[in-house]
């Protein structure tokens, strides 16, 4: 789509956005519904760590050492990749994260949950999710 640049807006009901290619940039906007899901496909950026930032004003997806940023809006559910590494910064609107398990006990997923309503990272509670395949 448009040279790998996406500008997608969901509808009034919950939407699910499946990412299957690492050649992407642009915006995914969940629309006006409350529950919108982002599913990271199993082949998405294999061997690259992904950082998903769902803090209120900074929603984005970045691949470490990969393609440009994908901006996110109104995404509340993240389904991670099995056997791959993600860092997910959860904002107050995040309702569910399925982290996928990380690569190994030494390369775990990292889930950061905002510690207050003002979305400041310096007041966040950090949980490291242990385990792999």
List keywords for this structure.
133 residues; eight-stranded mixed β-sheet; four-stranded parallel β-sheet; globular
Compile the SSE list and pairings.
Blueprint: E1 5-9, E2 16-19, E3 25-29, E4 37-40, E5 50-53, E6 60-63, E7 70-73, E8 77-79, E9 86-90, E10 96-98, E11 109-113, E12 125-129
Parallel strand pairs: 1-3, 2-4, 3-7, 4-8, 5-9, 8-10, 9-11
Antiparallel strand pairs: 5-6, 6-7, 11-12
Structure in words:
The protein has 133 residues and is mainly beta. It has one domain (2-129). Helix content is 0%, strand content 38%. The protein contains no helices and twelve strands. The strands form two sheets. Strands 1-3-7-6-5-9-11-12 form an eight-stranded mixed sheet, with no helix packed on it. Strand 5 and strand 6 (60-63) form a beta hairpin. It is globular. The relative contact order is 0.17.
| Average pLDDT rating | 76
Going by helix content, strand content and strand pairing, the class is mainly beta
Could you tell me the radius of gyration in angstroms? 14 Å
How much of the polypeptide forms β-strand, as a percent range?
35-45%
Brief summary:
By secondary structure, the protein is an all-beta fold. The protein has strands at 5-9, 16-19, 25-29, 37-40, 50-53, 60-63, 70-73, 77-79, 86-90, 96-98, 109-113, 125-129.
């Amino acid at each position: 789509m448009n040279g790998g640049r996406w500008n997608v807006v969901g509808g009034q009901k919950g939407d699910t956005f499946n990412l299957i290619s690492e050649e992407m940039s642009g915006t995914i906007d969940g629309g006006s519904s409350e529950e919108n899901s982002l599913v990271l496909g199993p082949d998405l950026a294999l061997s690259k760590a992904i950082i998903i930032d769902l803090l209120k004003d900074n929603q984005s997806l970045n691949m470490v050492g990969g393609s440009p940023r994908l901006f996110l809006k109104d995404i509340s559910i993240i389904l991670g990749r099995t056997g791959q590494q993600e860092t997910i910064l959860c904002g107050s609107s995040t309702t569910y994260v399925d982290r996928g398990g990380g690569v190994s006990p030494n390369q775990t997923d990292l889930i950061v949950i905002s510690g207050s309503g003002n979305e400041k990272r310096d007041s966040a509670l950090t949980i490291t999710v242990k385990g792999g395949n």
